[in-house]
């Protein structure tokens, strides 16, 4: 089975979808990854802030960070080969690399929105220190 790995910059939580100012590209890539895994793909995300050891243990990613720096992230690898840097993969790219075929038009998000986190939810309010 093909394995896709996405090495991301430091995010406040595992997906970066928390708090009141959510980055739309993180919402989109999270939906795309959920879709790919739901139809049989193998996609794994690594967050620099939460999983620095994964970056240190991967020689290719470690060399990339040393040469380009964190501003070059994310780095997407397929079976150990670097296939994309500087942006997140699209749903059609994930489907192609995972051998899933092209997603149907109705599977592709046109515009996803995230509801702001509640004041006491992840990365906000009193409970933030226990979450992020």
Give a topology summary:
Blueprint: E1 3-8, H1 24-38, E2 42-47, H2 52-57, H3 59-67, E3 75-78, E4 81-85, H4 91-98, H5 128-131
Parallel strand pairs: 1-2
Antiparallel strand pairs: 1-3, 3-4
Essential attributes:
132 residues; alpha+beta; Glutaredoxin; 5 helices; 16% strand
Cα-to-Cα separation, first versus last residue: 32 Å
Spatially, the strands of the biggest sheet line up as 2-1-3-4
Strand residue content: 15-25%
Instruction: Provide the CATH topology.
Output: Glutaredoxin
The count of strands amounts to 4
* DSSP helical segment count: 5
Weakly predicted, low-confidence segments? 110-121, 124-132
Describe, in plain words, how this protein is organized in 3D.
By secondary structure, the chain is an alpha+beta fold. It has one domain (3-131): Glutaredoxin (3-Layer(aba) Sandwich), CATH 3.40.30.10. Helices cover 32% and strands 16% of the residues. It has 5 helices and 4 strands. The protein has helices at 24-38, 52-57, 59-67, 91-98, 128-131; strands at residues 3-8, 42-47, 75-78, 81-85. Strand 3 (75-78) and strand 4 form a beta hairpin. Helix 1 (24-38) runs parallel beside helix 4. The longest helix is centred in the N-terminal third of the chain and has 15 residues, at 24-38. The radius of gyration is 15 Å and the shape is globular. Residues 110-121 and 124-132 have low confidence and may be disordered.
């Amino acid at each position: 089975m093909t394995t896709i790995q996405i090495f991301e910059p430091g995010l406040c939580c595992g997906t970066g979808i928390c708090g009141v100012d959510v980055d739309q590209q993180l919402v989109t890539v999270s939906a795309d990854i959920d879709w790919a895994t739901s139809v049989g793909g193998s996609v794994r995300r690594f967050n620099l802030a939460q999983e620095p050891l994964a970056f240190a243990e991967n020689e290719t990613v470690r060399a990339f960070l040393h040469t380009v720096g964190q501003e070059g992230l994310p780095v997407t690898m397929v079976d150990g080969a670097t296939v994309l840097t500087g942006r997140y993969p699209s749903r059609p790219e994930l489907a192609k690399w995972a051998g899933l075929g092209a997603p149907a038009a109705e599977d592709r998000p046109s515009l996803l929105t995230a509801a702001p986190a509640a004041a006491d939810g992840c990365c906000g309010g009193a409970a933030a220190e226990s979450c992020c």
